[in-house]
Write a structure and sequence with these properties.
The protein folds into three domains: about 15-80, Arc Repressor Mutant, subunit A, CATH 1.10.10; about 85-200 and about 380-390, Nucleotidyltransferase, domain 5, CATH 3.30.420; about 210-375, Nucleotidyltransferase, domain 5 (2-Layer Sandwich). The strands form four sheets. It has a five-stranded mixed sheet, sandwiched between helices. Strand 11 (about 215-220) and strand 12 (about 225-230) form a beta hairpin. It has helices at about 15-25, 30-40, 40-55, 120-140, 180-185, 195-210, 270-275, 275-285, 290-300, 305-330, 345-355, 360-365, 375-390, 395-400, and strands spanning about 30, 60, 75-80, 85-90, 95-105, 110-115, 145-155, 160, 165, 190-195, 215-220, 225-230, 235, 330-335, 365-370. The protein contains 14 helices and 15 strands. It has about 400 residues and is an alpha/beta fold.
Length: about 400
């Protein structure tokens, strides 16, 4: 059976929120099974379940009654009411966004991806997000009143608690923009904001690596970013800046400064291995490449200049990752984003540097994989984070017990 949810102080919870966590995490349970798992009395379990039923957070799944067998009403089992409302999420990238409408378990019902340009500013980009949300709700047959929460991810540093973007290198006009105020005009619900690589990390971790405990997600697209799972939890750092591997600096022997990055510094990993940097170098070699998708096509069709750049990028990324591996000691590294599609060329250099430069103990059981969720990783992670936030046991207890 699934363990009980715990309170902020680490003690097992006994309120309706803890029971709801059981119904969210496992198969349907009868009242007797809940009593066995929790150790609570029959009267307390009945009271908690009745509160959850009245609030429509769970539903009673009555078994089929066989004619002529047994007496009285059969014991029902209870499970999360996935139809109680919907969640809206949008994974906003530098050049594209993917929005989704999900049920309250975090399962994607419908999603849609469209091109965007994050440098156009928040009002332009969020107007497109609004349109996607409206279309997706219509597809799901739901209204704005049924939206229980919204979650966004962006390609820049974020203040998770305040749901604001903070001094982003490429997101012109987004600094401290009031995202909650923007969506409050149409939706009366909480809004969460995450860094894109962090959302991807959570999606991969919860979906495919729940036993990894410590995991690193490397996102390779227009830029370079990382999300960190440590001790089974998201690690954001003291101020939300953890995982910004793209703006660590690397220098070649005898090099003075290195290439200029979009953040204004020189020699950043992203300025050598990011999609935009590789496009810059390809164009300098006379290739006509407009975006990362075209860059990937060049690499996969064996354009010699593109392949050489990809292999160099893999080694640059591997050097940066090696230091992180020695410090963090992750069990799994997952690589996602558009450039992960050039897996053969980029992964070779990445593996070489990681395994040759990291501490032997840190790489003894290290696994390195390509993303299994691919372009949906961010959306899946956001939906799961949002569901956890909405159904946090202490939040549920406060709502139902006062």
């Amino acid at each position: 059976m699934t363990a009980l949810a715990v309170t902020a102080g680490g003690r097992p919870g006994t309120g309706p929120g803890a029971l709801l966590a059981l119904f969210r995490a496992g198969p349907p349970l009868t009242r007797a099974e809940v009593m066995t798992v929790t150790g609570l009395s029959r009267s307390t379990v009945n009271q908690r379940i009745d509160l959850l039923l009245q609030s429509r957070m769970i539903v009673d799944r009555q078994p089929d009654v066989v004619q002529g067998r047994g007496r009285g009403r059969p014991a029902g089992s209870f499970t999360l009411n996935v139809d109680r409302g919907v969640l809206l999420v949008c994974d906003i990238g530098a050049t594209a966004m993917r929005a989704a409408v999900c049920d309250v378990s975090g399962e994607i019902l419908h999603d849609r991806s469209v091109p965007t340009d994050v440098t156009l500013g928040p009002t332009t980009v969020l107007a497109s997000t609004d349109g996607l949300f409206t279309d997706l709700l219509a597809l799901a047959g739901r209204s704005p009143d049924e939206v229980l929460g919204i979650a966004l991810s962006v390609p820049g540093p974020v203040d998770h608690e305040q749901a604001t973007v903070v001094s982003p290198p490429i997101m012109t006009g987004w600094d401290r923009f009031d995202l909650r105020g923007w969506f409050a005009r149409s939706y009366a619900c909480p809004l969460l904001l995450e860094k894109d690589a962090t959302a991807m990390a959570w999606g991969e971790y919860r979906s495919h690596y729940p036993d990894a405990d410590t995991m690193l997600m490397l996102k390779l697209g227009t830029g370079v970013g990382a999300g960190i799972i440590a001790g089974g939890r998201i690690h954001r750092g003291a101020d939300g800046a953890a995982g910004d591997i793209g703006h660590t600096q690397t220098f070649e022997p005898g090099e003075d400064g290195g290439p200029v990055c979009r953040c204004g510094n020189t020699g950043c990993v992203e300025a050598r291995a990011g999609g935009w940097a590789m496009i810059r170098d390809l164009v300098a070699e006379g290739r006509d490449v407009a975006d990362v998708d075209e860059l990937v096509d060049r690499i996969r069709t064996a354009d010699p200049v593109a392949v050489a750049l990809a292999r160099t990028a893999g080694r640059v990324l591997g050097v940066a990752l090696a230091e992180t591996v020695s410090i963090l000691n992750p069990r799994v590294i997952v690589v996602g984003g558009q450039l992960a599609e050039a897996e053969e060329q980029i992964f070779a250099g990445l593996r070489e540097m990681v395994y040759s430069r990291s501490l032997p103990l840190a790489t003894r059981r290290l696994e390195l994989h390509r993303s299994r969720l691919d372009e949906r990783a961010g959306s899946v992670g956001l939906a799961l984070l949002l569901a956890d936030h909405i159904f946090d046991p202490e939040r549920i207890d406060a709502a139902l017990l006062g």
